[in-house]
Design brief:
heterodimer, A: about 260 residues, alpha/beta, Rossmann fold, six-stranded mixed beta sheet, four-stranded antiparallel beta sheet, 10 helices, globular, B: about 260 residues, mainly alpha
């Protein structure tokens, strides 16, 4: 496969005080794929994803997006650069002083000259895409957790980003809602073809959405590859974390066999 | 048994404290510089500025009026008690007017705004920080300093002098009310004495101070909110520090500004 790399991390190091969070990590993410960064709590997943969009800059090493070094950008360039991205935050991070409609339309209002009516149409369209209807005038506090995630996702895709970052998309949701969010991520991937980078510790979610998996442990990627490769890894830390992934995968395989 | 503590420990502690304070001062200065930079860069968020002016100015008016009225009254009462001893009762109006415009008006206004609006700034921004709404603004290519802090900064800097004018007027009225109604001064004499020695400079100096206080409250409270960490507890701490630090700074700045700019000696 000719690798069309969109995001490349080279020797990224980050420490907070004396605590080393990322210890010289390398990772390449291909254009259009869905990469899942898997790992337990406190392994530096969030820190890694924040380097991609320039919310944090590395102590050493660099992150390249479309060949451009994120850490070296000026403030102004960074503002422009971030328009390539949509990010879904763990708690959705909707602006609670704005309505859902204003939240989803925020980027359009600030960065385009789109007239109000077109903007509203676009907002409704994006909300429908994530399965929300007639919520434009509600405040975030009036929505359930699952609906907030959906609205956050609608905001993330409002500007048709080339890269979507998902920070723990299913954490804190019940299994059925989590499944719906997973389906949504897969659907969006098929529909808009954006590169997706997700961080999670949820094996079911990983199994559902990942084209490739990178396993992060104590600031290092211990295994990177197709889900099957990673789940069957012989590295003890990976095997221990991923055994349930193997189970899910094989049961899915059994179901497939029974169906055919 | 006597335990010996290495004297270098104290040197170390002193050093650590110094570094801590200097770091904080440096961070706040950079933050203030950022705010100033973004304040003059278009587009201007006029609507957001007006919203904040409502919150900081309009909504603070009742509490500030009440404080000023009470202080003006008590000032009249107290100075009457003192001045009676050497037959200077007629100077009560003068004292109330001078101390209100030069000192108590700006000072009380600033403290009340720090307590009322400053705490809200810190709590609101702190909550936005811990729920990642600030990060979300960055990812949407919207600088949070421009969107959230500049409107608060401009509104506080503009509204503090306005509130101070109100506090001055209400404070003087409070003093007059007590002077005339309770202490039995002749209203004409009381007002004549009130304005006889009052110079425009007394009012200007108060208004200038109040602008500085407004800017200070906004910078400190927004800074505390902005660097909040760790959930509800962090928000609580940020709010407390915001009010405590801005109040202390108001007292210090008040002395400094008065001593160097407005004593006219």
């Amino acid at each position: 496969m000719a690798d069309d790399i969109i995001i490349e991390a080279v020797g990224v190091k980050k420490a907070f005080g004396s605590k080393v969070v990322l210890d010289g990590v390398d990772l390449s993410i291909r254009r259009g794929e869905s990469m899942v960064i898997l790992g337990g709590s406190g392994t530096g997943k969030s820190v890694f994803i924040k380097h991609i969009i320039g919310l944090l800059s590395p102590d050493a090493g660099k992150v390249l997006v479309d060949g451009e070094e994120v850490g070296a950008m000026t403030e102004r360039r960074l503002n422009e650069f971030r328009k390539k991205f949509g990010m879904l935050f763990q708690g959705a991070a909707l602006f609670d002083s704005l309505t859902i409609g204003e939240n989803v339309g925020f980027g359009l209002k600030e960065h385009t000259d789109m007239p109000k009516r077109d903007r509203e149409k676009r907002v409704t369209e994006k909300l429908n895409m994530v399965g929300l209807h007639d919520v434009e005038n509600l405040k975030p506090a009036e929505l359930s957790g699952g609906m907030m995630k959906r609205a956050g996702l609608a905001r993330a895709i409002a500007m048709d980003p080339a890269i979507i970052l998902y920070d723990e998309p299913t954490t804190g949701l019940d299994p059925i809602t989590a499944d719906q969010i997973n389906d949504l991520i897969v659907d969006l991937q098929a529909k808009i073809g954006a590169t997706a980078v997700s961080i999670t510790h949820d094996m079911i979610s990983t199994n559902r959405i990942a084209d490739r998996v990178a396993f992060l442990y104590k600031g290092q990627f211990l295994a990177v590859g197709e889900p099957d490769e990673v789940f069957n890894s012989s590295v003890p830390e990976v095997a221990k974390f991923c055994y349930i992934g193997k189970v899910i995968r094989s049961s899915a395989a059994i179901q497939d066999r029974q169906r055919t | 048994m006597i335990r010996f503590i290495n004297p270098l420990t104290y040197v170390g502690m002193l050093g650590a404290a110094t570094i801590y304070v200097l770091t904080a001062v440096g961070e706040v200065s950079l933050f203030a510089w950022d705010i100033l930079r973004w304040s003059v860069r278009p587009p201007f968020k006029i609507r957001a500025i007006f919203e904040q002016m409502m919150v900081i100015g309009y909504e603070s008016t009742p509490v500030i009026s009440l404080t000023a009225f009470a202080t003006g009254s008590v000032l009249a009462l107290q100075s009457f008690q003192g001045f009676q001893r050497f037959g200077a009762e007629s100077m009560v109006g003068t004292v109330v007017a001078l101390s209100t415009t030069r000192e108590l008006g700006p000072m009380l206004t600033a403290i009340m705004v720090a307590a009322r609006a400053g705490s809200a700034m810190a709590a609101q921004l702190g909550t936005m920080k811990v729920t990642e709404q600030i990060d979300a603004l960055y990812t949407l290519s919207a600088n949070p300093i421009k969107y959230l802090i500049v409107p608060r900064f401009i509104a506080a800097t503009l509204m503090l002098p306005v509130l101070t004018v109100i506090a001055d007027a209400v404070g003087i009225a409070g003093g007059a009310f007590i002077g005339v109604e309770v202490l039995g001064s002749n209203p004409i004499v009381y007002f004549k004495k009130t304005f006889e020695f009052l110079e425009l400079n007394d009012i200007y100096s108060g208004l200038f101070k109040s602008m500085v206080f407004g800017a200070t409250v906004a910078v400190i409270c927004c800074y505390q909110g902005f660097k909040t960490k760790g959930g509800a507890e962090g928000v609580g701490q940020a709010t407390t520090s915001a009010v405590v630090i801005s109040s202390i700074l108001i007292f210090i700045l008040d002395y400094v500004l008065t001593a160097f700019l407005f004593t006219g000696a």
